Amino acid sequence: MSYQILIVEDETSIRDSLSLNLELEGYEVTACGDAAQAMGQFQSRQFDLILLDIMLPGMSGLDLCAHFRLTDRIVPILMLTARDAPEDRVTGLRTGADDYLTKPFHLEELLLRIANLLKRRGSGPAQQDIAGPGIFEFDRYRIDFSAFEALTNLGLVILTKKEAALLRLLIDREQEAVSRQQILHIVWGYEVAPSTRTIDNFILSFRKYFEANPRKPKHFHSVRGYGYKFTS
Question: Is the pLDDT of residue 105 over 60?
Answer without folding.
Answer: yes
